[in-house]
Please model this.
Amino acid sequence: MKGYLQLLRVPNLVTSAGDVLAGAFIVSSMGSGPYAMLWLLLLSSIMLYAGGVALNDVMDASLDQIERPERPIPSGKVGRGQAFILSCLLLVGGIILSLAFSQLSFYISLVLAMCIVIYNIWAKKYGIPGALVMALCRGLNILLGFSFVHEHFWDFALLALLPFLHIIGVTALSRGENHGYTAKTISFIALIPLGIVLWLIGFELFKGSFAFMELFFIALYCFFQVLAYYPAIREPKPEFIKRGVKYGILSLLLLNAALVSIFDGSLHALIVAFLIVVSLWLSRSISMT
Model:
């Protein structure tokens, strides 16, 4: 069983649900949505993400045999064929659940599933296309949350650019997990979350109001970026880069919480941020990478 939990990177699934939950909270600030049906979008997102990471391991099985022999497929804990079937079932299941919610959600999940397949089959082999497609997947995931109240979908759609940019940085950093990077390269990648922090502060200045909780979540997001990038810049070795990727994935929840606090309020932001505790607890026994 643990092999399958590792295959699906269960701690990461929490962050996927956090995207949708944040999107639903943000768009609900303009009009109430059907909260009794929100579980359909949350489970759809989780299944699509789980299907994607399972497919990732299927496609990387030969490489992992050399570089990551502890992974479930090369270690023999999960068969490659079993992982492929599970991936297909999860992707199709995620699409069906989104259709049960709304037509808009279905279209978004369908494009998301296509991007997941494109990433794993082709884009991940190349630096820039891989980072862009992976980031697009995460941007589409929060758009899935925005579809919770489809009447106000386009009022917030551009906010998906922030998780899109954040994941470009995390994906670029993850390229050095096996062989390391130079400190200069990691410093360059760190400019992405720096730009996001400046945007968040700039938006607060534009609003002309500085609520404590909004500034708190922005500061917390910034702190996690320091945890992710500074040790890796100081010692650009694989072990520090892997830890940086972990904090980069987790801090997406804090970015989501910051956005929720700005547009919807502190209580819902705290709910989104609490998911980081759940993810960290799960990551104690199940690796996130």
Summary: Residues 95 and 212 are 39 Å apart (CA to CA). The mean pLDDT is 93.
